[in-house]
Amino acid sequence: MILVTGGAGFIGANFILDWLATSDEPVVNLDKLTYAGNPENLAALAHDARYVFVEGDIADRALVDALFARHQPRALAHFAAESHVDRSIHGPGEFIRTNVEGTFTLLEAARAWWSALPQTEKAAFRFHHVSTDEVYGSLAPEAAPFTETHPYAPNSPYSASKAASDHLARAWFHTYGLPVTISNCSNNYGPFHFPEKLIPLVILNALADKPLPIYGDGQQVRDWLYVRDHCAAIRRILAAGQPGETYNVGGGGEMSNLALVKAICALLDTFKPRADGLSYARQITHVADRPGHDRRYAIDARKIERELDWQPLETFQSGIEKTVRWYLEHADWVEHAQSGAYREWMTQQYGKTHD
Ligand code: NAD
Ligand code: TYD
Known about the structure:
By secondary structure, the protein is of the alpha/beta class. About 45% of the residues lie in helices and about 15% in strands. The chain has a domain at about 1-190 and about 225-250 and about 295-315: 3-Layer(aba) Sandwich (Rossmann fold). It has helices at about 10-20, 60-70, 85-90, 95-115, 120-125, 155-175, 200-205, 225-240, 255-270, 300-310, 315-330, 330-340, 345-350, and strands at about 1-5, 25-30, 50-55, 75-80, 125-130, 180-185, 190, 210-215, 220-225, 225, 245-250, 255, 285. Strand 5 (about 125-130), helix 6 and strand 6 (about 180-185) form a beta-alpha-beta unit. The protein is globular. It starts with a strand and ends in a 5-residue tail after the last helix. It binds nicotinamide-adenine-dinucleotide and thymidine-5'-diphosphate (TYD).
């Protein structure tokens, strides 16, 4: 089986659903259920014997040790993190605790367990650390996209904490030989994306006739990748990635925030026109910029394409259409995510409480 951390979040949930749709290998999901952890994302697996949910903290060494001993995973896919840049600006402490100390705890627990394995299992074990392109910092408009050897220059507390965790993962390979792989991926979008992030926020604010907040001039550029393409890349790395290697993952879909928001408005104009017949684009509102806001991220994904034969299946247009339709078709999920009712889901489903 494999151990997944942070599987109740946006990318982790997509990863688990796709994993169990393409394989019968069981998954244990360790997730603390912070505000970003929504067990409703995995409601389809509630009665699936291949899926085990454990509510807990990756920084809890005794718990992580017990999970290794009990489930004997052949691999770990580490998604758990505090992930929202704006939250990291207001309260960086939790980012250091989960992203840095939590990753350290997982690496140490994995190392202790892995060291005692027989030689063949030891060689086959994988610790996959999921990271972000934000560790590389901001690119000039004409600069070449980030390769795996681009210097680290994180600018936000979020990206600094992710950079620190990447360095720990790297060091555990070089110093102890733990079979670590790392992926640095661009901005994801798709189903189950928590509504504080730009794309779901814009879709839902548009439908609610609220302002669509664009930070600063909206000319910041991101490289958007459909989440299931990211999940497929991680499956390829777990299957064929080389220990000690980093793989950049991206969609080649560079776009300014303003162009992105206009594209979403145009889709909504077609799928669910405003009652007055005007475009949703009229709700676009420029607001104060994010402090330290990175201007541009872009990924050079040629290494994973060449070495692991991975390619994104979705274009930006096909992926964003699926995403907009998903939000239109999942009004209950949206309502629970916005009202906080998803936090009651565990209690309803399992008669279990959590904080
Ligand atoms: P998310 O915020 O949606 O989900 C994070 C999950 O981790 C939640 O379920 C949360 O409950 C859990 N978690 C947080 N702290 C924990 C702790 N101490 N112990 C156990 N579980 C904990 O994040 P996401 O967008 O799904 O991102 C997943 C990973 O992918 C992160 O490591 C992030 O840095 C990375 N990443 C994200 C993007 C993106 O565009 N969202 C892009 C590249 C990389
Ligand atoms: P976000 O989804 O928070 O991802 P990240 O900061 O990790 O790239 O934001 C994507 C881009 O959208 C980023 O440049 C910030 C911008 N943004 C806005 O303009 N308005 C918003 O309300 C939000 C949440 C983000």
